[in-house]
Amino acid sequence: MDPSFFSLSKWLWLLFSPTHLLLWALLAAWLLLLAGRRRRGLQLLTLLLGFLLLLTWLPIGDGLLYPLESRFSAPSRLPKRVDGILVLGGSVQAELGGYWKEVELNEAAERLTRFIELARRYPKAKLIFTGGSASLRPGLPTEAEQIRPLFERAGIGDRVRYDDRARNTHENALFSRRLARPRPGERWLLVTTAFHMPRAVGVFCHQGWALQPIPVDHRSMPEQLLRPRPDLLAHLNNLQVALHEWLGLIAYRLSGKTSALLPSGCGNAS
Q: Which one of 21, 135, 143, 254 is most buried, counting C-beta atoms within 10 A?
């Protein structure tokens, strides 16, 4: 594990995410006006307004997501035999579920529905869910703890093995590989969100485990990339998601957790 990498990445994103950068810029403009630097303050406010107007109409985030989501396509035909199926966490709101005593999901819930569908299609396959707590606060519920009732209700609870330690994609690969102990020649499926698949594949390949990608939860379509449509909140959210993933790819490459900036496979993956 690399606690310094995990903590640093969390704090840097907390400070410099797009929404927070907009807030810091607005604060800077306000301070400039208070300090009597009216021209500088108005210039900064004009830039902010122009950016928000541009983002209101143009899906900039979709344009950044599409290269990630199109990197791996869903297979047109699934294999006849599958030895194991692995799904990454990121779809469970563990803290919220801990309070309400219910399984609370987010917009990445398709990871779980696809995982359950594949588990039923391959009744003899090993099943692994990997997801701990990605919060900087200690002692919070893990995704693995919260998701168990859902799998039990789906009829696969007795087959799933859980990794409740992983806090990021690197640890997903590290701990789930130890749990699965894949043998040479085994065929495993990897289920995660489409824009996250390149980084996930890169990390697993770097650790010597080739899995067949099953991307889900797509957010972009090529015909809409240059089609103006007013929706500031949706465009800002997709921009936030896209920049987080691209920065994650850069950080993983620079820290040696992947062998390529935009991974395309393991070379020997079937």
A: 143
Give the closest residue to 53 by CA, choosing from 220, 227, 243, 235: 235
- Tokens of residue 183, six digits: 């043998």
**Nearest residue to 87 via CA among 199, 165, 162, 140:** 162
Q: What are phi and psi of 159, to 5 degrees?
A: -100, -20
SS (H, E, C) the chain: CCHHHHHHHHHHHHHHCHHHHHHHHHHHHHHHHHCCCHHHHHHHHHHHHHHHHHHHHCCHHHHHHHHHHCCCCCCCCCCCCCCEEEEECCCECHHHHHHHCCCCECCCCHHHHHHHHHHHHCCCCEEEEECCCCCCCCCCCCHHHHHHHHHHHCCCCCCEEEECCCCCHHHHHHHHHHHHCCCCCCCEEEEEEHHHHHHHHHHHHHCCCCCEEEEECCCCCHHHCCCCCCCHHHHHHHHHHHHHHHHHHHHHHHCCCCCCCCCCCCCCCC
Q: Report the side by side order of strands in the sheet with 160-163.
A: 160-163, 126-130, 84-88, 188-193, 212-216
The ranges assigned to domains in the chain are 3-67+230-248, 77-218
Q: Is 227 helix (H, G, I), strand (E, B) or coil?
A: coil
Sole residue written with tokens 């917009």: 107
Alpha-carbon distance 52 to 123, whole Å? Answer: 50
pLDDT on residue 268: 42
pLDDT at position 267 is 65
In the predicted model, is pLDDT for residue 241 greater than 80?
A: yes
**Amino acid of residue 17:** S
Tens of pLDDT, residue by residue over 150-167, are: 999 999 999 999 999 999
Q: Report the 10 Å Cβ neighbour count for 97.
A: 20
Query: Which fold, 77-218?
Result: Rossmann fold (3.40.50)
